[in-house]
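Contributing new records

If you add data, match the layout below exactly. Sequence lines come first and carry their own label; structure lines follow with theirs. Keep one chain per record. Anything else will be rejected by the validation script.
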Amino acid sequence: MIFLTELKLLPKIHFLDAMKKLYYSMGEVSKLTGLAPHVLRNWEKTYAQLSPKKNSAGNRAYKEEEVNLIFKIKELLEEKKFTSEGVRKVLNGDTSESGEHQDLSADLRKDLAEMKVFLNQLLEKL
């Protein structure tokens, strides 16, 4: 956990870079994305590109790219009203929806969600 006083010591480091992690637990991903863990497990079965590694304890460890992919899938399903088959086609590159603009959107959504979680945790401590 990074506290406000520690952020003052890191003026040259971008705020979000200080919050980046190598791996996210399922609970953290669930909190960031607003998706229940059973939905994340289901998406692992539905979309081959989403396959987080499991640590020695058997818990899922999501990399940043996988979290971005989850945000992209969520956007396609919930906001753009794609079917699961449509999402699969986009992820496989079969449609024009898979452009770089979408990756940027997923990155921004993840960063904003991380900031929201961080600020909510900070608020709870105050």
